[in-house]
Amino acid sequence: MQNSGDVWQGIVTLFALLLLFGYLGWRRGFAREFIVFVAILIGQIIRATDLGPQLVVKINQFWALFKIAAKAGFSPPKMLELAGEIATIEPLIPPDRQEAFLFLLFLFVIFLGYFVGQFISSRPSPVGMIMGMINGYLIGALLLPVLPRELPAHLPGQTASVAQRQQAQEVMRRGLQQVGEILGVQPVYALLLLIALLLLWAAWELR
Amino acid sequence: MGPIETLWGVIVLVFVIIALVRGYNKELGVTVLLLIVLFLELQFGDMVEARLKSDILPTLIRAFGGDPDRAVEVQNFLLLLIFQGLLIVVIFATYAGRTFSFPGSPPRGIEGTFFNVLVGLVNGYLFTGTLWYYLHKYDYPFLKRWGLFDPTLLTDRAKRMLEYVPPALFHDHPEFLAAFAGILVILSVRK
Asked: Which of A12, A91, A180, B38 is the 20 to 30 A CA-CA neighbour of B7?
């Protein structure tokens, strides 16, 4: 159960996120924000599907091969001799740090999205603001659940507890629900309103 | 045969492709006309239907030697023709003839493509949603009799979707459609 403090915390967080990312989206323009959107999707796919653990396995395999190669002085015959030791090499990313690594990778991919966008010409636009808000919501919804609600933060390698994750997700969900109720609209009418605004912007953007 | 919503989905996709090819400045003109037709049908539809059912259609059916009380399906079919026909004629005229397009050209790149797709989706939704609404309202006349379509086989998804077609959503407040069309027209002439 959530108390009213949690709900308001969710609402304030949501509004702050949407406001901040909406402003950034307006300034950066649609094209740049769309790249960030794609980066968030890629980051989340890596983090939430089997792709992430598979990537960790590959990185550990390359790391083991590199260690063997270094030990053999990068001489192929010696490398073959030492091939049996490959199983004894400590993995670069141990299983207890896998989640932390994938989380950092997720952050890096998002950062890359923002970075790459700098090289693309894009002008300030209201559609950019909408895209920025969507990105803000996604980043908030994906990042907040893994942040602890109280300090101290997790120790390195320690995983976020399921309870914390569920609690944070619930705060976001309740916050969004409350926003909908405050606006006094059903989702379908909110969607229609959004589409109507987008159409008006589309007409405005003609030049 | 697949579910009917698949057919509507394909038609919406065609609208999106047309919008991508033509550009959304032309498609917004179609949107405005669709909104106006929808407003007229919702605002005056009940009145027109009542008048037709009470007077004109029975006379017409009797003139062809039929019994109006037993020819409910024929009545429904004629009403369907009137409501869908108006929409189809308007759509045909806007695409085939001189189009009411908005001045200016769409922005380039992703933004322009996004708007093209959006306006195509909206037009497809307005057109197919309205066709489907009237088809369902008049109980799929003759399609059932000829075995072309059985409404009892509508999927749960289709039944849910029918609650969200434009005439169902705006039946009580068609003035919103007219107001929105008006705002779009004002935006089109602001330059």
From this structure: B38
